[in-house]
Specification:
Chain lengths: 459, 459
């Protein structure tokens, strides 16, 4: 397993003093590394944060593998009901390891597809019900608290559509003993897989939340965990030179806070990493977008993550990236070895715009374009850096996801914010409960009506 | 056709003076409307900008309909080779009018699927070749200049895979008489559909670039154009009160420039509008992200567009949106009428988190969540506004796309930038040509090597 971090294009000699890191800034920032690791280690040792321990949960792995083996061959569709962290990890795994939709192999009971219902848009749910067959569908309902409105609403609709099969073909992934999904699962005798108390949704891909769908899709979950375990050891290194998660966090922190790069572009040159980019977008936004520091100081901090796809978005976003405001830092994600490189035929057509490509490979062109974009950004004074994965398999992906979680946790230490809560989404949820008439939320209905009266007066 | 723009939550009484538009700012900004429309009208009347005339090209419509009728029933896959503006419009149409991948109906010759190869990632191209059958695949190669490296490289690979069928099953969409795609098309006797000289890629969805794939998918392209034509009339209204594109441009301009909202979140509450959000992301970024004004003044201006999906991203991005820096303006895209509303069964389970949902509809929940998010953003002082489409059909989509193009063009007038060029992407292209050994680009190879030497010294 090999994942490299290359920070050269973040440095002042490449992008200038105003936007790049000087030699003295670099040295003094890297000296903060050991304290950052030790501070985060305390949270983990006290049991407050659980994701670093997930790669070592042998019992969970066994339980998941046993269940997947038992149902293998019975279902052609795994219908995942979940939203946010309950869905994005499974999408990242599916997209990276089985290829981007809609170009995966045709689905069958030997090769079940993953149908993710992570929205209550009736157009999405309706389309899913039209293309699935209740006889060959296994439903996974995933919500940590067991109360998420969107997931439970979809579950009620899908359960009705399944008819009597629902009781035999539904699995719950939730917190045992808490919430109404758990209560229903017990009543209906659904299998239940636990989400550990100290693992939040966006850090849960290596718990049953991501591993169960992965195993049901036939992925090698043991290798996912092995890669993540190896990376976990690397991420506990206190020397930033040996620890890509730590070095990336320290340098991104400098570029964000000192060089005012308020937008973070995650820029995979790989369609298979597109799902991972969306998974990362939640991880970075929800963990680091905070009103207050841990001491309660009001800061309204947060770097806006943007997912861009190479080379595709060179023809969509790069004009802005090169010529627009210098308010971004770019992190390329590259994959070194491709199983198929896309050989372009050797025959020449006698046409300039075609002939220089003859005999080359699509993989070479992809690589040349990434290098060219990095160079062009650097020449325009735009700081950028690169993670390179040797290949895209279970081991590297497990390691990469775990590394990005560590990077996020380290960044939270540097900013002194709590990476593991999300107080900002509560108000909206309560408004929704109020509007939907949930008992106990009548106050929010009233507050919403007050807001509507303010709107009438505002125009 | 009914599309409304609601700006109430952009106003100071809703989000405060620091972040919202005051009554006097509103009045004086709206008075600029007529000048903006007249200035843009001049560009169109002089023939410099062509997109407003596209809805009226009866000849093109007929040519496309005739071709689509001729090949209907022969192909189960329409393989689109194109990147940026050559691909995003077709994706927007497919996603909005036939539903989001991978949940479309199974494909067949009666219901062909659209396979978009908008990247040279061999994993994408390889997966496409594995799932398509050369016998039943029609290839559309789309590039305005006829020289785009990615499109031509993919074409060479796909052409080789098609074998002798390539000559009968390929169509070119390009500028007649220019570029090597046109030369090859003439040599191979492929049908050619023209892209008008004064229509750039990101404004080309209502030319053959978008209409041809749409017609091949069985969409009603005449109705697309009818909606767009009706909207075009509305967009030429000089009174901003009657012109949603103009009012949106004027008010977004104030919020962007005066209230420093450097990020523009396009926030559809509809999986079917997700492709449109990515299409818009190119339109806004490439048209308005510019180093210089039209007078040559260096400004490095540009608002970073972000695509977010409601309700899904409430559980991913809204924590940042509510608590993070107040540097964003949000534009919700709502759809009023759903063909299927997703009735939730009436039976109660005796479990609180389920029972308030009993008998309600997914469409109601979707709407309640959108309203709640808008209210929560407003209460946190975050300016937001809403476009509402009465329904999602060809007529409304044609109108909506045209409206967003007018809004972008009006914004360019307000900023005094050229919305119709993209000089910032040229440098990267030349580096790529240099690295790929294209004759005539040896200087860029050398410049790249100089950059590599600088990198070695920088570390």
């Amino acid at each position: 397993m090999k994942i490299r971090f290359d920070e050269t294009n973040l440095l002042a000699p490449m992008v200038g003093e105003a936007h790049g890191i000087s030699a003295s800034e670099y040295r003094s920032q890297l000296r903060r590394g050991p304290d950052v690791v030790r501070a985060f280690r305390k949270l983990v040792d006290r049991g407050e944060v659980g994701f670093p321990t997930l790669p070592y949960q042998k019992g969970v792995l066994k339980q998941i593998q046993t269940f997947a083996r038992k149902v293998r061959g019975s279902f052609d569709s795994i219908c995942l009901l979940g939203i946010g962290g309950s869905a994005l990890g499974a999408w990242a795994l599916d997209c990276a390891l089985r290829g981007p939709h809609p170009l995966q192999k045709p689905f069958s009971k030997a090769h079940p597809r993953l149908v993710i219902l992570d929205n209550v848009d009736p157009a999405l749910v309706g389309a899913a019900l039209e293309t699935m067959d209740p006889k060959s569908t296994l439903v996974l309902a995933i919500t940590k608290q067991g109360t998420t409105a969107e997931t439970l609403a979809s579950l009620l609709v899908v359960r009705d559509w399944m008819g009597r099969r629902a009781s035999r073909q539904t699995v719950a992934v939730t917190t045992p003993g808490r919430g109404d999904l758990y209560a229903l699962a017990v009543r209906e005798k659904w299998p239940v897989f636990a989400i550990p108390e100290n693992v939040g949704g966006r850090f849960s891909v290596l718990s049953a939340v991501g591993l169960l769908p992965a195993a049901l899709m036939g992925l090698d979950v043991a290798r996912l965990l092995r890669g993540a375990a190896r990376m976990t050891e690397i991420c506990w290194e206190t020397d930033a030179g040996d620890n890509p998660a730590l070095r990336a966090a320290l340098l991104h922190h400098l570029v964000w806070v000192e060089k005012k790069k308020t937008i973070h572009v995650a820029f995979p040159y790989s369609n298979r990493l597109w799902g991972t980019a969306f998974w990362f977008r939640q991880l970075w936004a929800e963990s680091l977008g905070k009103e207050k520091t841990r001491k309660g100081e009001i800061v309204q901090i947060g770097q806006t993550p943007v997912a861009a796809l190479g080379v595709t978005d060179q023809h969509s976003q790069v004009q802005l990236y090169i010529e627009g405001p210098n308010d971004k830092v770019f992190t390329f994600w590259a994959v070194e070895k491709q199983p198929w490189e896309g050989r372009i035929p050797k025959a020449r057509l006698g046409l300039d715009a075609f002939d220089y490509l003859a005999g080359r490979k699509l993989a070479e062109l992809l690589e040349a374009e990434r290098l060219s974009t990095a160079a062009t950004l650097a020449e325009a004074g735009r700081p950028n850096c690169t993670f390179t994965l040797e290949r895209l398999d279970e081991e590297h992906l497990g390691a990469f996801l775990q590394m990005l979680e560590f990077e996020t946790a380290f960044m939270a230490e540097l900013l002194d914010v709590n990476a593991f809560d999300q107080p900002g989404v509560e108000a909206g949820k309560r408004f929704t409960y109020g509007l939907m008439g949930r008992p106990g939320f009548e106050d929010y209905r009233e507050r919403f009506e007050h807001y509507l009266r303010r709107r009438q007066k505002a125009v």
